[in-house]
Design a protein that fits this description.
The protein is of the alpha+beta class and 148 residues long. It has 4 helices and 5 strands, in the order βααβββαβα. The protein has one domain: Aminopeptidase, CATH 3.40.630. The structure holds coenzyme A.
Length: 148
């Protein structure tokens, strides 16, 4: 049974292991300055970015989730964007991913957001197996213009 706790400064090492696993899953790397700035913002209540860790029965961190809210034109309430979700390979299938999504859902509801939303790769069948159980597929297609 997974429990979820807010990310704190004390979680730096455990978070870093999971973050590295997440970047590896996406076959990407980030420079140290970006990773350091990301962690600093996640544990800074004033930054607008939020994080939580899933823990197994021993208290070991097995997964992470990050999210943020933003204003919206179709609602006076904020929208909550779930940006990152990852469970370490040996911790999967035990409810941690579901618990992390539910944590963000509950947080967003408590903080007055109108909805929680996220993106995933069409090919990510494992993640979609979870998402199809806890959310509704929007039908929107994601476009982007990389800058700089
Ligand atoms: C997607 C991911 C977060 C799921 O985490 P998890 O802890 O294994 O998920 P859970 O154990 O909470 O499973 C939740 C539900 O999804 C289903 N599910 C999870 N993995 C599955 C799989 N490989 N095949 C079929 N169903 C699966 C479970 O059956 C479960 O349903 P239930 O609660 O009704 O039994 C994890 O696989 C992961 O980190 N993958 C790599 C990173 C990634 O894809 N992140 C998401 C990017 S958008």
């Amino acid at each position: 049974m997974a429990t979820v706790t807010p990310l704190t400064e004390d979680d730096r090492a455990a978070w870093r292991t999971l973050w590295d696993g997440y970047l590896t899953f996406y076959a990407t790397t980030l420079d140290e300055a970006t990773t350091a700035a990301t962690f600093a913002r996640l544990v800074d209540p004033a930054s607008g970015m939020h994080g939580a860790l899933a823990r197994d029965d021993t208290g070991a961190a097995v997964g992470l989730v990050h999210w943020l809210t933003h204003p919206a034109t179709w609602s006076t309430a904020s929208y909550c964007y779930l940006e990152d979700l990852f469970v370490a390979a040996d911790g999967r299938g035990a409810g941690a991913g579901r618990a992390l999504v539910e944590h963000v859902r509950d947080w967003a509801e408590r903080h007055g957001s109108a909805k929680v939303y996220w993106l995933t790769a069409e090919s990510n069948a494992t993640a979609r197996a979870l998402y199809d159980r806890v959310a509704t597929r929007s039908g929107m297609i994601h476009y982007q213009i990389p800058l700089g």
